[in-house]
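To assess whether the prediction recovers the assembly geometry, we first specified each molecular entity separately, as shown.
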Amino acid sequence: DAKTTQPTSMDCAEGRAANLPCNHSTISGNEYVYWYRQIHSQGPQYIIHGLKNNETNEMASLIITEDRKSSTLILPHATLRDTAVYYCIVRVPRAGNNRKLIWGLGTSLAVNP
Amino acid sequence: DAGVIQSPRHEVTEMGQEVTLRCKPISGHDYLFWYRQTMMRGLELLIYFNNNVPIDDSGMPEDRFSAKMPNASFSTLKIQPSEPRDSAVYFCASSSGVYEQFFGPGTRLTVL
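The predicted structure of the complete assembly is given in tokenized form:
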């Protein structure tokens, strides 16, 4: 699975959009980009995933560049409850037995009032 | 659904004691994962099961760690004997699809 690079920390004002970048320059054609987040003292929570098209759900939007070497997770109107560590993971969603997710250190997002 | 259930939520024990962590996955999920999280090493996969069968235990640190899944609704992670360096938060997660893993609240283990 391709390696990802994320900034260690970011700040965002409450009510503003939070844009979290992720570099995955060695991504291969069949690897998906996943985002999870971990709020303090809780287990990680799935947010969104995508292959090459932009994706949106009730939590966030995922923008993947045309060359797929980087992506951005967008929280359109950040709230204090969005303060968390955000993990970007790249892997092939195999239906077989290789279900390992490789977790980096993520980006610690602080949403400030 | 109640989500993934883990017990106990907190465990404090002394070095050398046996520790058993428990997990109940979401009903219908056929994959179960055990993770360990520390400040130094982040989130590490220890072992995962598919249909109650261990598939990959390459992350289990040493023979003191063992995991079982006797049926589809229950799994245990045992440490015997425990050591201070085993202090961490242990997460259980389950999944059915290929995209999303659902995590439990974790067990915070402190070994004195």
